[in-house]
Write the structure tokens for this entry.
Amino acid sequence: MNTLQTLLVATDLSAPSRHAAQRAAMLARQAGARLELVHVLERRALDELRRLFDDDGEAAQGRVREQAREALSLLASEVGEPLGVSAGQHLLEGAVLESIGMQAELLDAALLIVGARGASCMRAWLLGATAERLLRLTRRPILLVRQAPREPYHRVIVAVDFSPWSTRAIRLAQAVAPRARLILLHAYDVPFEGKMRISGVDADMIKRYAAKVHREALLRLRQSAREAGIPAASWQPLVIHGDAAAAVLQHQEEEGSDLIVLGKHGVGMVEELLLGSVTKHVLAEARCDTLVAAR
């Protein structure tokens, strides 16, 4: 079953955001999905343009709209036609993030795709409250594209913390990269390890305790894979003792992974409003594309 029925690309029409449209076209062809492009003209900027040009303000606004419409149409043809993919085009006016979120809901987008670098406010999407706000507004998975796409994803890390987001992340990874071998990565701390060392607990006993925690994590990874419904041949486990964000980033560097998939990494009321610290750290520091599974 195709779970990626509609892909929505939010573009500011800058050169870096073109990578996002190219990746989306590749995914649309791969999944047989519908591809849609959206560009938002900032309402405040249009109003300021009208004020500055006085009597010619409406004409200036019209020229901006027409240029944006032409650029959006050109982008759709340039990324879609070589792959035999047609792209719907939506030129909106308003607050950028709110307009994108509303369009994602209106189209029932299975995936929202954006460039990790771009002009205007998109430049800040990876940092702080803006990314959190967009995730809250859409409740859609978001793919942040950093690299120019050359081939389908084939080296994929899925960060698994056994929260409700983890199963969604695994399934989404398989949908986006069906031919990839997934690395299901879980990083753990040994509960009370520091206190045990301070209290003089025997080092061998701590080591046995840590080994038990490691074994249990492996079992839970296998259970998560079963719950996600992925075949045993399509994934491998990786359990690491230490900080989760650091483990994900280090493994990505060492293995040259081209995609990291995460859930929001958190449960409860506060985490519904904010990205988890692991997700936020990886979004800010990763050098490859990053996919955040939402609810």
In short: The domain at 6-145 is CATH 3.40.50.620 (Rossmann fold). The longest helix spans residues 203-228.
